[in-house]
Specification:
Strand content: 35-45%
Order of helices and strands: HEEEHEEH
Strand order of the largest sheet: 1-2-3-4-5
Radius of gyration: 14 Å
Structural class: alpha+beta
Number of domains: 1
Helix content: 10-25%
Shape: globular
Distance between the termini: 44 Å
Largest sheet: 5 strands, mixed
CATH architecture: Alpha-Beta Complex
Length: 114
């Protein structure tokens, strides 16, 4: 239970301006002639638009300006493209369940430049 406390505290703060729109949302979409699909852990409605969240209990990719060009994990980029079926996506991020915090994806737009 102690491990969930940071998650619960963060969620209480977030729900002032956020509501969960969907969980385990399966979507597919054709992008540049290729059909992609996936199951998004959570999609939230915020005042800025939709937020795509992927729960992580272990490791997740972390990039900086020097390493973004060598990125090999594009899960959130695919989720971003898929979630556009549901509305305007403002942000994507990982929900680190061990630390109970959100880590919003940086360089998302750079990785989508195709």
């Amino acid at each position: 239970m102690q491990q969930l406390e940071p998650f619960i505290d963060n969620e209480i703060k977030r729900f002032k301006d956020t509501e969960i729109r969907a969980c385990e949302l399966e979507l597919s979409k054709k992008v540049n002639g290729i059909t992609i699909g996936g199951k998004i852990d959570r999609l939230d409605n915020t005042v800025e638009g939709l937020e795509v969240l992927d729960y992580k209990s272990g490791s997740y990719p972390k990039y900086n300006p020097k390493s973004v060009e060598k990125a090999t994990d594009f899960q959130l980029e695919f989720y971003y493209l898929l979630a556009q079926n549901e509305g305007e996506v403002n942000a994507c991020g990982y929900y680190d369940l061990k630390q109970g915090r959100l880590l919003m994806k940086t360089y998302l737009r750079q990785n989508l430049n195709f």
